[in-house]
């Protein structure tokens, strides 16, 4: 009985040991900025920006403020944009979106449709 308890304890310790070999394989290369669309912060009217990185990530976004009345709280902001990334499976995924008074509305070939 004592032998079984010792054996079970050794198995538990071995299973709990960190897996250094797996952690060392996850080293990622440095990521560099390849392209940057000049940011344009146009004051109270909106903004635009964009970039592309060496790891395949891309992002573009623009926004416009729409004034619906004399009070600042009556204004809404409409944001349009997209982002892309390379997933661990090697596929590039792209999401286009709109964010406005109706909330965040993403679209992408890999996203489910309601």
Secondary structure layout:
Elements: H1 2-16, H2 20-24, E1 33-41, E2 46-53, E3 58-66, E4 76-86, E5 92-100, E6 103-107
Antiparallel strand pairs: 1-2, 2-3, 3-4, 4-5, 5-6
Average pLDDT confidence is 82
Termini separation (Å)? Answer: 58 Å
Percent of residues in helices comes to 10-25%
Structural class: alpha+beta
Shape: extended
Radius of gyration: 25 Å
What is the compact description of this entry?
The chain is of the alpha+beta class.
Question: Describe it for me?
Answer:
It is a single chain. This protein has 114 residues and is of the alpha+beta class. Helices cover 18% and strands 45% of the residues. It is built from 2 helices and 6 strands. The protein has helices at 2-16, 20-24, and strands at residues 33-41, 46-53, 58-66, 76-86, 92-100, 103-107. A 6-stranded antiparallel β-sheet has the order 1-2-3-4-5-6, with no helix packed on it. The mean pLDDT is 82.
């Amino acid at each position: 009985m004592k032998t079984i308890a010792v054996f079970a304890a050794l198995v538990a310790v071995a299973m709990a040991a960190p897996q250094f070999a797996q952690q060392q394989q996850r080293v990622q290369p440095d990521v560099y900025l390849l392209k940057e669309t000049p940011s344009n912060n146009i004051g109270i009217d909106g903004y635009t920006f964009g970039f592309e990185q060496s790891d395949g990530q891309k992002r573009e976004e623009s926004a416009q403020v729409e004034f619906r009345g004399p009070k600042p709280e009556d204004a809404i902001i409409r944001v349009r944009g997209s982002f892309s990334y390379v997933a661990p499976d090697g596929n590039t995924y792209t999401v286009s979106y709109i964010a406005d008074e109706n909330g965040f509305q993403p679209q992408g070939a890999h996203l489910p449709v309601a």
